[in-house]
Amino acid sequence: MPQIEEAQPKYLQIAHYIRDQILRGDLRPGDEVPSERQLAADWKVSRPTAARSLEALSHQGLVEKRQGSGTYVRSLEVNRRARELYGRARQTGKIYAPGEYAVILSAGWLEAPDYVAESLGLVKDRRAVCRRRVTNDQEGPIALSASWFAPNVGRRAPRLTDPERIQEGTLLYVERMTGRQGGYAEDRMCARGATNEEATRLRLESGSAVLVVHHVVFDLQDQPLEFAEATYPPHRWAFEQGYPLA
């Protein structure tokens, strides 16, 4: 069992250790995670600290508590496209696969809409850096997307306001410039009719169905690092999830 370090709150160190087990597949959907009592004994912490670590995992959508039974790993509902992009960038230094490319539509400081400000924790200073792009391959548009970053990130990562492509991807560039590392992400998905701009950019008929994903990346301190909104045409996405029947 790893030793508690002073650099991070104890509950977060425990939560991150279990999170890594889940993301590696050591703990699979339906598996029971250690109880508060077991965590307190294994990590030599108080029961409230152990309970807080399980609450953090629940907030991240990784576990669920079943009344009178225990805490179990949830089936992960993930934006597989985002996970593949980040994984490729970390392995190869390039975010897109051969044949894929992005056209940057705009990059600069904008007043963040309410839902972006709330996701990034912006209160007084609502100005944020926004990069908008269309991602394409040989078959046409894959997605229309926008990445938003808080002012403290924008000031430390000046290329975010440059309309040139960032080969390694915005997240890896931000990690390198700020020293903050992405730890986990949360996605919210919905389907709706395309706006006029979306239909034009994605080469769709007006009112076509699109998938909209709100993707928030959190750092290792559980602070929001990036908010991304991606719109996918109907032939470019599918929702997949595995779950136990028992």
List its traits.
two-stranded antiparallel ribbon, 246 residues, alpha+beta, Arc Repressor Mutant, subunit A, single chain, Chorismate lyase
Task: Explain what the structure shows.
By secondary structure, this protein is α+β, with helices and mostly antiparallel strands. It folds into two domains: 10-73, Arc Repressor Mutant, subunit A, CATH 1.10.10.10; 80-236, Chorismate lyase-like (Chorismate lyase). 31% of the residues lie in helices and 29% in strands. It has helices at 10-24, 36-43, 47-59, 80-92, 114-120, 151-156, 170-178, 196-201; strands at residues 63-66, 70-73, 101-111, 127-137, 140-149, 182-193, 209-219, 224-232. Helix 1 (10-24) packs across helix 3 (47-59) and helix 2 packs across helix 3 (47-59). The radius of gyration is 20 Å and the shape is globular. It starts with 9 loop residues before the first helix and ends in a 14-residue tail after the last strand.
* Count of extended strands: 8
**Secondary-structure arrangement, i.e. CATH architecture of the largest domain:** 3-Layer(aba) Sandwich
**Helical amount:** 25-40%
If strands are numbered along the chain, what order do they take across the biggest sheet? 3-4-5-8-7-6
CATH class value of the largest domain: Alpha Beta
SSE class: alpha+beta
Gap between N and C termini, in Å?
31 Å
Give the mean pLDDT. 86
The largest sheet is: 6 strands, antiparallel
CATH topology group of the largest domain: Chorismate lyase
Number of domains: 2
H-E string: HHHEEHEHEEHHEHEE
Instruction: Tell me, briefly, the overall form.
Output: globular
Amount of beta strand: 25-35%
